[in-house]
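User: Before I run my own analysis I want an independent prediction to cross-check against. Here's the chain; please return only the structure tokens and, at the end, one sentence I can use as a sanity check.
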Amino acid sequence: MENLYYNLSEVQFSKGRKAILWIFVILFFLAGVYVLILSYVIKKETIQPILSLAPFSISLIVAIIAYYSTVKRKDLFFSIDDEKIEFRYGLFHPGRHSFKWVNIRELIMTHKQKKAKLLLKNGTSFVINLTWLQRQKANDIQKHIYYGARAKNLNVIKVRYMPKKS
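Assistant: Structure tokens:
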């Protein structure tokens, strides 16, 4: 089995997309300021100051997304080799996980979702959720997990969807 390593810290957004997000942040913020100026400074009675809440809220939400796309995340990776599956990923608090092939009892792979469930010999389980990754990377990782499990003679169960409760 060949080794697979993906550096997930790579930039997912292009510079143009980041610039567009920040432009939307600025435009919605200025729209909120404009509504406040119309209601307080120019004293337009038909415009209520509460109307500025919508542009400010949109500006805040888009700012969070723009900040997340701009900040470089460090040490996010996915690695599969002959000995173990090791990865560190996540949106807010990424955690590092490492599973040795000898500790895995069974593997459940989904067909319609980008998920794999590892059933460990100590009775616990872990769901590897790859839905936030790019399609090609997620497909490559799923294939390597599948072929790695086959090479290690693990029982692989194929399901269409991962059960909600398990």
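Sanity check: The chain has two domains: 15-70, 75-159.
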